[in-house]
Amino acid sequence: MRLTELPFALDPYGPKAPWTYADGVLTGTCGARQDRFVPPSGPPGESVSDAPRLLGRAPAGDFQLSARVRVDFRDAFDAGVLYLDVADGQWAKLCLERSPDRPWICTVVTRGVSDDANSFAVDGDTVWLRLSRLGHAFACHASTDGDHWTFVRTFALGTPEEAAAARVGFLVQAPRGEGCTVSFDRITFRPEGPKDLRDGS
Fold it and tell me: PANTHER family of this UniProt entry (predicted)?
């Protein structure tokens, strides 16, 4: 799939799912109890469940991928996600997630097993998310208005060579429910990282 806002193509991964793109809006729908998470209390390895993803290899160098995300919340842990994959068992999610009874900004970083952290609660079903690469590190931000960005997390993942070849894109999940639909619009890709992670820019 080609999006006019992105300088790279997107390919589907995970379970087969309907992805559509029209008038600048990417829409994805997942099925029942689809997730991408390896519980930290369980054995290392691939998640027993999986969620549909649409990913492409970002151009070399620093970047910012952002989108306004709207989630058709129905059940606990439904989420729309900006997703990052660097290697087998090495991936991360920046989510607008119902966690469990109201929307939160959440992050998951998986290195064989997943961690899980809530950042801040939001009102409504819509927020802006931004995933950035800076050298061989990554950063997550969120915004309620698309203008002022709140720092959520920074981390390294994989080797520097793997980080440089990362695939990025979009994921939809419904770990406990019967399915979820997410729309991503105002998608933006910038071939540069944020100048300052904590100044709101």
Answer: REGULATION OF ENOLASE PROTEIN 1
